[in-house]
Amino acid sequence: MHPHVDVEASVHLRLVVADADAVPLPVSLRYSAADPYAVRAVFSGDGMEVEWVFARDLLRTGLLSPVGDGDVHVWPSWGTGRELLMISLTSPDGQAVLEAGADDVRAFLDRTAAVVPDGEESAHLDLDSTLARLLA
After folding, report:
1. Which CATH topology does 7-135 take?
2. Is 0.85 topped by the overall pTM?
3. Which residue among 23, 55, 93, 112 is least packed, with the fewest CB closer than 10 Å?
């Protein structure tokens, strides 16, 4: 079950392909105060959805400097005269490098901060419910 979505934005990413033009890849970024530390990136196509979940802070920090550990790495870049956010996703099936317009991601993050201000995420956690689910 997905938590209630408080902020959603369609962002046009481009899949960076070696020796070829980048391939457009629509994605829906979703944020919920019920899971205040997380951003969900939902990729849709061919009748299926693939969801990646990562820290909201990862995107915010990645707009300014390289960050990431494990399966997700994010860093700022410039391309064709505009500021980009690069996202590398790694899974057992392979790796994908994506580019997004930094302004689009920044606007999404600003909307999430209006729901749960940066640094105030812990005030929105329902630890009793989470613990009860884990122990059930």
Report:
1. Transcriptional Co-activator pc4; Chain A (2.30.31)
2. no
3. 93
Separation CA 62–CA 72 (nearest Å): 11
Contacts by residues 123-130 (CB-CB < 8 Å, ≥ 24 positions apart): 124/33, 124/34, 124/36, 125/36, 126/34
How far is the CA of 64 from the CAs of 58, 84, 91, 97, in angstroms?
10, 11, 25, 18
Whole-number Å distance between alpha carbons of 42 and 26? 9
Kindly list the domain boundaries of the chain, sorted by start residue. 7-135
User: Amino acid letter at 132?
Assistant: A
Cite the DSSP H helix spans in the chain. Answer: 56-62, 102-115, 127-135
Q: What percent of the chain has pLDDT over 90?
A: 49
Reported as a single tens digit per residue, the pLDDT across 77-104 is 987 788 999 999 998 988 989 999 999 9
pLDDT band for position 8 (cuts 50, 70, 90): very high
**Hunting for tokens 């979940």 — which residue is that?**
53
